[in-house]
Write a structure and sequence with these properties.
This protein is mainly alpha-helical. The chain is built from eight helices and three strands. The N and C termini lie far apart (45 Å).
């Protein structure tokens, strides 16, 4: 294990460590410790890890923004809210003031009115699916 840790430190020192994509000296899209996204991309398990982390973040955003109303909602409604948080992120979701108020009051019909937004126009089918899940409480 120590040898592996030493190698990781050496490579990080040589290559650097970046949290955001950048173009390397040859013009290839790169991230992390010189991960060449242009040629190599991501493996399935790496995609799954990123997805799991992003779902956890979206779930946390929902807990923060909707509190007890989120935790009391049906699984389908929680999933719909998580999908919105996943797509919008916390700051943009917080901008849906009337939507958030409706969720907090358990007014799922009014909450589904998120369809009257630029987000709904941009996301199309996703917004329609989410609205249906919010209204019905089922999948």
């Amino acid at each position: 294990m120590r040898q592996s840790d030493d190698l990781a430190r050496l490579l990080t020192r040589h290559e650097g460590r970046r949290t955001h994509p950048y173009l390397d000296t040859t013009g290839r899209l790169t991230i992390g410790v010189e991960r060449n996204l242009t040629d190599r991309g991501l493996a399935g398990d790496e995609i799954d890890l990123l997805l799991a982390n992003d779902i956890a973040l979206a779930r946390s955003i929902c807990g923060d923004q909707f509190g007890a109303a989120f935790h009391a909602a049906s699984t389908a409604r929680q999933q719909a809210l998580i999908s919105m948080a996943f797509n919008l992120g916390g700051p943009r979701l917080a901008g849906f003031v009337r939507f958030r108020a409706a969720v907090m009051q358990g007014d799922w019909q009014a909450a589904a009115e998120a369809l009257d937004s630029r987000w709904a126009t941009q996301t199309g089918r996703r917004a329609t699916d989410i609205a249906a899940m919010l209204r019905s409480g089922g999948a």
